[in-house]
């Protein structure tokens, strides 16, 4: 295990090196189908896909400020504690070399002689105040399975949901969103079904982009005019082409994949899922963007300029990326739905690589401006000429992704112009 990963497990997981860390649902996942889990306050993890792992390991320097920081690989197993509750536990790998395709990682795991409970010294800023919730939210009882199943049924019926929050401590009430619960339940079910044959999987550790925000508002946008990878089956290819043709992906190179926004005036959270996003016309997409930047009382126009600046920086970086294709990648836009009342210095990520990049969102003269973040995520179908085994090598820029960025910049610029009127 690398010293950096050992330090991470001690700081964010448990203070015992070489032991396990109980993984929790990541409550701010608004899109995608892969299960994202909370490893610690500043770190999430997701199943390792070799192509995505290769991308993070060979990331061009100019792209680092636009992607989550990569923190390593862990081995995750599905276990029951003494009370029969189901848990996902992360253990350090002895080495990152060798097999990285989740085929037989059994030799990479630490012995599981006893269950290690999640340390409640580190409280999530978005979890309720009581310690029992912190300790127990990584466990899943049979009763909870029924609740999650009910949430999934509700999610299938409602593509836009509103959750009313009581006035007062809003932060303590944000325990989950319906999409993260859906993905989490499906992943647990798959692991449970496979447990007899295989119970250890590799996950990659990535920076939690929401950790600095009290109430993260998150917009997940699927970018580009094409979503299928070069290695997609004919069935998958046809399915992805159909989704693009029937949505705003074909016309403007971007479609809504998920959204969570806090509307402070009515005191509610609004969630919008990918099924609703696929149905949106161009006018509907513009309306959804307006809703994302609206707090129920007014448009948060002060967010628009920092977001536009970041998008333009990203466009310049992508135009310099030769032969990359970011098929099926998403763009995340994040801001705080409940910002501090008085101007304060933003929380920095204690010496982590990328601190300087965060500060690019607000120059020295804008100490009181809102902190926003804009990042690319999900690289399971990314390709470039440096990936030696790929059958197709593309030339030039990813024009589909850049086309989507340009249209997004235009639409948000229109919002900014209207808000200035």
C-alpha termini separation: 57 Å
User: Based on CA inertia axes, which overall geometry fits?
Assistant: globular
Largest sheet: 8 strands, antiparallel
What structural category do the secondary elements indicate?
alpha+beta
Output the radius of gyration: 21 Å
What do you see in this structure?
By secondary structure, this protein is α+β, with helices and mostly antiparallel strands. It folds into two domains: 3-207, no CATH class; 216-420, D-amino Acid Aminotransferase, Chain A, domain 1 (2-Layer Sandwich). It has helices at residues 3-13, 50-57, 131-136, 142-157, 178-194, 234-245, 248-252, 274-279, 282-292, 304-319, 355-359, 399-420; strands at residues 21-22, 24-25, 37-40, 43-47, 70-80, 86-92, 139-140, 160-164, 200-207, 216-223, 254-263, 268-272, 325-327, 330-336, 372-377, 381-383. The strands form three sheets. Strands 1, 2, 3, 4, 5, 6, 7 and 9 form an eight-stranded antiparallel β-sheet that branches. Strands 8-12-11-10-14-15 form a six-stranded antiparallel β-sheet. α10 (304-319) runs antiparallel to α12. The protein starts with a helix and ends with a helix. Mean pLDDT is 78; it is low at 14-18, 97-136 and 344-368.
Structure described in brief:
This protein has 421 residues and is of the alpha+beta class. It has helices spanning 3-13, 50-57, 131-136, 142-157, 178-194, 234-245, 248-252, 274-279, 282-292, 304-319, 355-359, 399-420; strands at residues 21-22, 24-25, 37-40, 43-47, 70-80, 86-92, 139-140, 160-164, 200-207, 216-223, 254-263, 268-272, 325-327, 330-336, 372-377, 381-383.
